[in-house]
Amino acid sequence: MARAFQIKVSFNMxxxxxxxxxxxxxxxxxxxxxxILAELLAFGVxxxxxxxTRARHVELFNAAQLGLDRNAGALNxxxxxxxxxxxxxxxxxxxxxxxxxxxxxxxxxxxxGLAFLVVKIAEYxxxxxxxxxxxSDTFHMFYFSLTFxxxxxxxxxxxxxxxxxxxxxxxxxGSHDAHGLETGAAYWHMVDLAWIVLFPLVYVMH
Amino acid sequence: MRQATLTLNRIWLIMLFATLTTxxxxxxxxxxxxxxxxxxxxxxxxxxxxxDDFMELRHAPLLWRVLLIGWLGLVTALIVLSYWIGx
Lengths: 206, 87
Fold this sequence. Notes:
A: two-stranded antiparallel sheet; B: 3 helices
């Protein structure tokens, strides 16, 4: 997309300013956005089916929900939000050719993703140890399948962040081209977005 | 694209606060309509921040912003509906 002009100004370490592009601009590859839409559709259907199934088993869902580790869920929310924040900072830094800073932010995002997986695995282990599984009841069927569906997306997201981290260190991204970085970052934000709905829906609301 | 890091930090703090609110409501055992609507409102706000500022759709062609915020709005509206018919 052609830009009429582009001036980059760096005020200090805190502020980065680019004059806006003339036309609206979708960051990253179009393909990832099609993929993001498809994934959000899948998550959306899953969330709505959960909600309407719950409406037919309110007592069961409310009671079973009490057994969930809400603190783990909240911690995971913080980890994903912070991870997305780090990835957004990494992209901003890369665009200003602050490569070392971008690498550190991306490493932070990756740590958030990995920590999420660790917390989730511990959460599952506690459930299995308590004898709970997908077969236990309708609530747990949803709890395990929905969170595991999301878990696999986090796994893919972590894989993407690892690739982005290595490529950042190799100097692949900068003010000249941050396209691939933005593409991977967009996917990661989608993973965060899905959990933002999932956490209150499954762990808290009753 | 205007990308002030100060904006990103402010957004992160808002999202943390919204998460704390939802968690707090959970800790307090808050059930019922008001709590449910508050938590969905928190989720909606967080989601819009991710879509507009992390995904940067605020500066993208309007179609994408409509699609994603529309997704978020539709899903949360349907969840509200499910609570309405379930109680």
